[in-house]
């Protein structure tokens, strides 16, 4: 059973400067909740209640968010404002939170490796909180992926079809269709130009990884900008036939940039806030 979910949250968030100068990108609110809270809710709904967060300098707000604020609790106790804290209280009582710091921001692969002491030798999920995923029709995206992991027992990565002109923003896969919306991954390219892309199936910020990934990341040479990419380590797993890509059901908003963030905000306002499901 997978219980652990890792949130790499040490990145600089440069696309959202200056908002992210002194505040973590993962704390940007989408309507009334910070991005990371949506991610933790999705993890808990999937049965993952051991939350591990890779933070960095200037990210202490993340730890404070997942803690009791006694003064606030005292202030609103017994008032009609208590309803605003119902959701976050549930997370605090049902999840454990552990943290480690990435001291040098050497890429997503390196951030995941930094989380190794919190994960140990077991399969785990990874959520990039700036990809906000929702499915109004049924299971959340991580729940869908955990079910697949239980069936296939190998690394599962979430993919989505993107505009062929935008492949240079993503890791892109090539694979063989093995079931409904399921591909066994054969090849993977990090941020290919449209003419070099093997498909328009792009990797988004949800993964279930088997623990052998850590040694594979260790063997990965830094690429562009000295960053260690996760794609290279995944590629090695894929060569052994152990990576399945899943075209998930639901929507994904890239909240790392202004456009996706605004779309997510409008979506959550209409579907959660106005309908009273936002807490
Ligand atoms: P991004 O590619 O979105 O990078 O990282 P970023 O630094 O957060 O944002 P921009 O591109 O500068 O605007 C994807 C995820 O990996 C984490 C980020 O926090 C984000 O959740 N990450 C990235 C780390 O934890 N450490 C790193 O060294 C790099």
From TrEMBL:
This is UTP--glucose-1-phosphate uridylyltransferase. GO terms for molecular function: UTP:glucose-1-phosphate uridylyltransferase activity. Belongs to the UDPGP type 2 family. It catalyses: alpha-D-glucose 1-phosphate + UTP + H(+) = UDP-alpha-D-glucose + diphosphate. SUPFAM superfamilies: Nucleotide-diphospho-sugar transferases. The keyword Repeat does not apply. CDD domains: UGPase_prokaryotic (cd02541). Keywords: Nucleotidyltransferase, Transferase. Residues 9-268 form the Nucleotidyl transferase domain. One of its GO terms (biological process) is UDP-alpha-D-glucose metabolic process. Its EC number is 2.7.7.9. It is an enzyme of class 2 (transferase). May play a role in stationary phase survival. It comes from Pseudomonas weihenstephanensis. It holds the Pfam family NTP_transferase.
């Amino acid at each position: 059973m997978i219980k652990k979910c890792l949130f790499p949250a040490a990145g600089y968030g440069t696309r959202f400067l200056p908002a992210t100068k002194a505040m973590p990108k993962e704390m940007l609110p989408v309507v009334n909740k910070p991005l990371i809270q949506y991610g933790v809710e999705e993890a808990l709904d999937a049965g993952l209640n051991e939350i591990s967060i890779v933070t960095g300098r200037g990210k202490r707000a993340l730890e404070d968010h997942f803690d009791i604020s006694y003064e606030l609790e005292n202030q609103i106790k017994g008032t009609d404002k208590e309803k605003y804290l119902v959701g976050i209280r549930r997370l605090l009582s049902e999840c454990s939170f552990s943290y480690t710091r990435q001291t040098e921001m050497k890429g997503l692969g390196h951030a995941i490796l930094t989380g190794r002491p919190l994960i140990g030798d077991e399969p785990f999920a990874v959520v990039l909180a700036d990809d906000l995923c929702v499915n109004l029709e049924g299971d959340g995206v991580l729940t869908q992926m955990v079910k697949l992991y239980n069936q296939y027992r190998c690394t599962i990565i979430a993919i989505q079809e993107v505009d062929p002109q935008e492949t240079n923003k993503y890791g892109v896969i090539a694979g063989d269709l093995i079931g409904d919306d399921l591909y066994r991954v054969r090849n993977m390219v990090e941020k290919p130009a449209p003419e070099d892309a093997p498909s328009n199936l792009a990797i988004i910020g949800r993964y279930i990884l088997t623990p052998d990934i850590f040694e594979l990341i260790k063997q990965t040479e830094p690429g562009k900008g000295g960053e260690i990419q996760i794609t290279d380590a995944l590629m090695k797993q894929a060569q052994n036939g152990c990576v399945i890509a899943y075209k998930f059901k639901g929507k994904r908003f890239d909240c790392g940039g202004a456009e996706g963030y605004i779309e997510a905000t409008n979506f959550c306002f209409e579907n959660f806030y106005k309908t009273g499901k936002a807490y």
